[in-house]
Model the fold of this input.
Amino acid sequence: MKEQKTAIVWFRQDLRLHDNEAIHDALKHGDDVLYMYVFDRRWFEEETKYGFRKTGVHRAKFIIESVHDLRQSLRAMGADLVVRVGLPEEEIYDVADQIKSSWVFCNRERTQEETEVQDDLEESLWRIGQELRYSRGKMLYYTSDLPFPVTHTPDVFTHFRKEVERYIQVRPPLPTPSDTIGARLDDLQVGTIPTLADLGYEEPEEEPRAALHFVGGESAVLERLSHYLWDTDAAKTYKETRNGLIGADYSTKFSAWLAQGCISPKRIYHELKKYEGERGSNKSTYWIFFELLWRDFFRLMAKKYGNTIFFKGGPKEDIDRSWRDDYKLLQKWIDGKTGVPFIDANMEEIRRTGFMSNRGRQNVASFLVKDLKVNWQMGAEYFESVLVDYDVASNWGNWNYVAGVGSDPRENRYFNILKQAYNYDPKGDYVKLWLPQLKALPPDLVHRPHVMGKDQQDKYGVHLGGNYPHPIMNAKKWKR
Ligand code: FAD
Done:
């Protein structure tokens, strides 16, 4: 009789059933398939170099929800999801050894911490005659389809975009398997999905001002996709609204789900194409694709430049000597106590919700690096901790870019924060949402309370050095 061969699918940041190459490969090779997820202890217990918890509460919650959703979907297909809390390279190995599987299939990661885990697992599997097989699916494009080798990826985004747009197509997403052959678990414990408390977190406070109440999982993001395209036609005005600051629909909000792989970029792309086919295309529908290209670009930069994206001098190896590891200034920035309302409001939003608009991110990052002259790596680590949508390549790539150490040589822009504030929040609605102590200020003063004399402070109930701080830098240098 032919020997039964079992394949393990190790889910990582690909928490979905649609367009999941690891699942497809496993179903192709294995007589049966065991699905597994490991909550990597290090993500929840360890700290970054500058002392931030590696994973903040909003992302931890999002991951837990995503894993619940995945288990539910697998169960609906007659399979299950084995869950462990520990080190993936040990937990997956133990299960592989126990059930005598033949292969482990997983999505390949490309940044250091992630590759160390997969390399360790691979070596252990070799010892018991098993194999780790890698699959793709993080990007719109497959690297094998690119018109250039990864190491020759153009350093300038526009060049990259033009080349890929001209020469290659986004492949269609792989279908969701209609049923699966779940391995018999016998005496293998299926495992309980940990709660936030199990991972050492307190439940975050409900925040009614949050742009969107993010719920992790493939089911939630497929609903969000449908909402943004078909239910509201928000995609049709994306280019005009994308620099917004308040509310759910000024941008897609796909980022957190993309980061955990609850949705594949190819799926978004092809749904967009379908939408354009039925309801028409315009600059806005194109622009969603354009932004997704940035995501691919930063991932390719991470592949091309490896660990240098984490170094102070970045891929450019160009350190600005004025950057300091100034914890005091950093803390004021984190706490939203810089005395610059547009910065403080954004920092308040991210601290309370784990999310901040792209416009906000550009501004707070520029402010930290170019005005406060704080080492950009500290800001990048804080974002790594707190963001619900943290993605290694996108986060570090964008910080490289803002700090001017990235590969794109054009980008050494300075943001005049006051000008930005008046452009994007002309009446101060956003600032007042997150800093209610400023709510009585008229538009003319809301972004620059520091110009008020004592009388005006009394009149509007805003007291500099009292319920709102003096600016921590020379804010008078900014002209509107
Ligand atoms: P939309 O505007 O709707 O864009 C659609 C999608 O395109 C996004 O979901 C995202 O996947 C992609 N995208 C858009 N802009 C960018 C960009 N500049 N770089 C890469 N991809 C982009 N994005 C992350 O996903 N994770 C991060 O950790 C992250 N860190 C950032 C740090 C800094 C300092 C800055 C300036 C930007 C960062 N971004 C990051 C990029 C961007 O701000 C977010 O992707 C975006 O705000 C998420 O909201 P959205 O999904 O509504 O985006």
User: Anything to note?
Assistant: The pocket of flavin-adenine dinucleotide is lined by residues 242, 251-255, 258-259, 288, 291-292, 294-295, 298, 357-358, 361-362, 365, 383, 387, 389-391, 394-395, 398-399, 402 (CB under 6 Å).
